[in-house]
Amino acid sequence: MLGPVILAASRSDKMRRFVSAAPGTKQVVDRFIAGETVDQVVPIVVDATSGGLEVTLDVVGEDITTVEQSYAARDAYLELVERLKGLGLGERAEMSVKLSMFGQSLEGGHELALANIRPVVEAAAAIGTTVTLDAEDHTTLDSMFAIHEELRKDFPQTGCVIQAYLFRTEDDARRLAAAGSRVRIVKGAYKEPGSVAYLDKAEIDKAFVRIVKILMAGDGYPMIGSHDPRLIAISQELARQAGRKLDEYEFQMLYGIRSDEHVRLAAEGHRMRVYTAYGTDWYGYFMRRLAEKPANLLFFARSILTKG
Length: 308
Fold this sequence. Notes:
Blueprint: H1 2-9, H2 13-21, H3 25-32, H4 38-50, E1 54-59, H5 67-85, E2 93-97, H6 109-126, E3 131-133, H7 141-154, E4 159-163, H8 169-176, E5 182-186, H9 201-217, E6 221-225, H10 229-241, E7 250-254, H11 259-267, E8 271-278, H12 283-292, H13 294-307
Parallel strand pairs: 1-2, 1-8, 2-3, 3-4, 4-5, 5-6, 6-7, 7-8
Helix pairs in contact: 1-12, 5-6, 6-7, 8-9, 9-10, 12-13
């Protein structure tokens, strides 16, 4: 049960300093983080899309404490939109955002996050792409869904994320599985109490399947966020049963994880989108990747030992 321990460490400044200073950290971080700047990530976007893949780009850094930092986050995404504009990729390169990075957790955060995200969504629409609102811990979701609903009034292509481990998510999926909606389903990667979330992996997997079935049977556009071969195969079968064509849903996987599977699914004709994170404030994102899979943690531990 290392996952909850690692997730707790993701909020620790002491652990942040320790991990950042560890000699093997950069090797592992580079596996999950595409770069620190827009200049570094643009060639990766071009290479991926040239190879038949699609991408969603995440500027990491949700742990902000000031209004000024929320403005900086907004500006970082606006810079990204400007760089994507010249590539002419349309929805093949979209963006994912965490509203905490836009000030959601600050005083007056709901209104602040909405005000900050709106120009990003507007700029994205102007170049033919869109934005997906990432789900964070359960205390933020009502605000996230309200902002999502407000943005969709003017930008109906705005997507959102739901998490299979939360008890509420099946109801959320039924509400969101409407015409024109874009919904990414993931297992969930935040430390949640047993009062609101399934804690057992088998129960989370069962919930994931139930939710995919709801989304596939609905009128929206499901985005299946998983690296699990079994869940991918089940999702393909549920899409077939629902009569969906290959371009009526997509798979999403993280940059640096199961890259061979990215290529295989795309070669089979599936829409395959790679969640590509970049930026300097990588710690929280990195620790959630370690928590999701023990093999990632072992890879990190070996890197520290061999570089020490």
